[in-house]
Specification:
about 140 residues, alpha+beta, five-stranded antiparallel beta sheet, four-stranded antiparallel beta sheet, 3 helices, about 25% helix
Length: about 140
């Protein structure tokens, strides 16, 4: 018969639970940058960086907003703008995050307030027309 001391068991069990929690954590392998109103830039690796709408801070339940690799972006309390690489060409995106109702964070509600993918000329024209005073800045991994 093996007899364990209670202190030894606790010294093993507690670190095991902590390790299990860290490994199971949704945020363990990603870097999420909060952009306000449930929007995040989520970086899984250098080639997979996207703008997402998340219902929680770890992005367990997401709606891809900019589904391509984000190269440049900027944001304020009302808007998010982004430049992405689609492998063949650059695409541009404008998200009116202030107009999205927090009560109905469904796909249709969110997609109604996203303009993109756009070409650079259309993107610049919309920024000027809607008086969106943001400038794209490189995303630093």
């Amino acid at each position: 018969m093996i007899i364990f001391k209670t202190d030894n068991i606790l010294n093993l069990v507690i670190p095991c639970f902590i390790l299990l929690f860290l490994l199971k954590s949704c945020c363990f392998c990603t870097k999420n940058t909060h952009l306000g109103n449930h929007f995040y830039i989520s970086e899984y690796d250098i080639k997979d960086t996207r703008v997402m709408y998340c219902s929680d801070g770890c992005c367990n339940s997401v709606i891809d907003v900019v589904p391509q690799t984000v190269l440049e972006y900027d944001y304020n309390s009302k808007w998010i703008i982004a430049k992405a690489d689609s492998a063949l060409y650059y695409t541009y995106w404008i998200i009116d995050k202030e107009s999205i109702s927090n009560k109905t964070d469904n796909y249709k509600n969110i997609k109604e307030h996203i303009r993109g993918p756009l070409d650079s000329v259309t993107f610049s024209s919309i920024l000027s027309k809607d008086k969106i005073n943001l400038r794209l800045k490189k995303y630093l991994q």
